[in-house]
Specification:
The protein is of the alpha+beta class. It contains 7 helices and 20 strands. The strands form 3 sheets. It has a 16-stranded mixed β-sheet that branches. The protein has a two-stranded antiparallel sheet with strand order 3-4. The longest helix is centred in the N-terminal third of the chain and has 16 residues. The termini are far apart. 47% of the residues are buried. The N terminus is likely disordered.
Length: 460
């Protein structure tokens, strides 16, 4: 174990001990008083660098969809406090994860611009109320990884007692009923010695049946985390390929269907999950790396390591600037430092270790979950030799439509190969992503995501 990682684990263990261990008293009255509505610590840090959480509007007046989000953010005039790079990272090691330290050391030009901490992530009142109800009612399945019951939309386990509960909170965070990309890009940086980028243009929709406003039992909305559809617009090698999938909360066998335009047919893809490489990205991008983590939790044993104060990507509105030029943001080795904003926040540290008898190309993973929103803000994957392999950054953005924060855009750095993936950004798209709070049209209905409909819309 490296000295940096050993130091990190010692600090995390100390934080866990001070918090009384991962199991906290299940007292719903703490939510909204000593704890935030979703279970974070209401109080700021002792040194004042992390302020107390308070509920406030996320945007100034005048924003509507189609206007740049960053222009209406309340704290758009914040100035950088300091910059961390390979030369001075030792001064800040206690606030950096092993993955961040590796990025700073190994990635030429990678640096972190640190800003004042803005705890701007809230939730609507109905989500807060459902979360309180879940303290007494939410249950995991007997298998230890599936979600059996919960009141939705709401955080199932605001006071988690184990890692699977914490990861389920991430999966069930309130995101409205849908997300709509009219245009977006998935990018993979060139191989060493090459200048050839992979740039795939896409259209994509997510439908979250548990996101319907009000108070509903999970059994009423169906045990589906989300439905999704996407189709590639470019390059020519991918254009016309399309996918429709149902991701379940209690069944590892997702319904995934793929349309191949050259064959003019839809195929069911039962093995297109977990660590299967995504089509067209030269083995740089696995299925379950999408949006930091996607799919079921069943292949890993999940353990809460503790809580820690970490510099994490937060309020990163620059990567959702749909009017920006792609290569003003997307650099050869990393995203432009001016578009990545880091703040000091408390995170849950959750470690996943592959189960005995199961397999995965990353036998160990570490996730860092924001205490205020349950978004995965950082992740690290280790290879079969135990070496750090991939580092992911989830770019938290305040969502004005829902009153919450979300992670869609993310970057993933492959340390040994010196390449990175950048996905779900709107940079260069010419149109913003849209979060939906009300069901509308066929794409917020389960029937849209069937194999029959995929064939019908792909053949048009």
């Amino acid at each position: 174990m490296t000295n940096a990682k050993h130091q990190f684990m010692l600090v995390a263990a100390a934080c866990l001990a001070m918090a009384g261990g991962p199991a906290r008293a299940s007292d719903a009255s703490q939510l909204g008083t000593t704890l935030t509505p979703l279970g974070g610590e209401m109080a700021g840090s002792k040194d004042g660098r992390i302020p107390a959480w308070k509920e406030e509007a996320q945007a100034s007046d005048g924003w509507s969809w189609g206007k740049l989000r960053k222009d209406y953010w309340k704290y758009k005039n914040d100035k950088s406090l300091y910059t961390i790079n390979a030369a001075n990272m030792g001064q800040y090691a206690a606030m950096l994860t092993p993955g961040q330290q590796a990025l700073l050391k190994q990635n030429p030009g990678f640096q972190m611009e640190v800003y004042p901490t803005r705890r701007s992530c809230g939730v609507p009142e109905f989500v807060a109320e459902n979360t309180k109800k879940n303290v007494a009612t939410a249950k995991m399945g007997a298998d230890g990884w599936s979600l059996k019951s919960a009141v939705v939309p709401g955080t199932p386990f605001p006071m988690p007692s184990n890692g699977a509960q914490a990861m389920m909170n991430m999966k069930m965070r309130y995101r409205g009923v849908g997300v709509e990309y009219q245009n977006g890009f998935t990018m993979v940086s060139p191989r060493r010695g090459s200048e050839d980028w992979i740039m795939a243009g896409f259209e994509q929709n997510y439908y979250f049946p548990a996101g319907k406003k009000g108070s509903n039992n999970l059994t009423e909305t169906g045990n589906v985390e989300y439905y999704t559809y996407f189709t590639y617009k470019s390059p020519a090698a991918l254009a016309g390929q399309a996918l429709a999938a149902d991701i379940f909360l209690d069944n590892p066998n997702s319904e995934t269907f793929y349309y191949f335009p050259g064959q003019r047919r839809v195929r069911r893809m039962p093995a297109y999950a977990y660590d299967a490489p995504q089509i067209g990205f030269e083995n740089q991008y696995l299925l379950d790396e999408t949006n930091m983590f996607t799919g079921t939790l069943d292949r890993f044993d999940w353990k809460i390591i503790g809580k820690k104060e970490v510099l994490v990507p937060y309020n990163v509105l620059g990567v959702y600037d749909f009017k920006a030029k792609i290569h003003d943001v997307v650099g050869r080795n990393a995203l432009a430092a001016s578009t990545r904003r880091y703040e000091l926040h408390r995170v849950w540290v959750v470690e996943g270790t592959v189960k005995q008898g199961a397999r995965h190309v990353s036998p160990k993973r570490t996730y860092y979950l924001d205490e205020d929103s349950w978004n995965a803000v950082l992740a690290e994957d280790y290879d079969v030799q135990g070496a750090l392999w991939k580092v992911r950054e989830g770019y938290v953005v305040p969502v004005y439509e829902t009153g919450t924060c979300d992670v869609l855009a993310f970057g993933q750095y492959n340390l040994p190969e010196g390449r990175y993936v950048f996905d779900f950004s709107t940079v260069g798209a010419g149109v913003d992503v849209k979060w939906l709070t009300e069901s509308r049209g066929e794409r917020t209905k389960a029937a849209f995501y069937t194999s029959e409909n995929l064939r019908a819309i792909s053949d048009r």
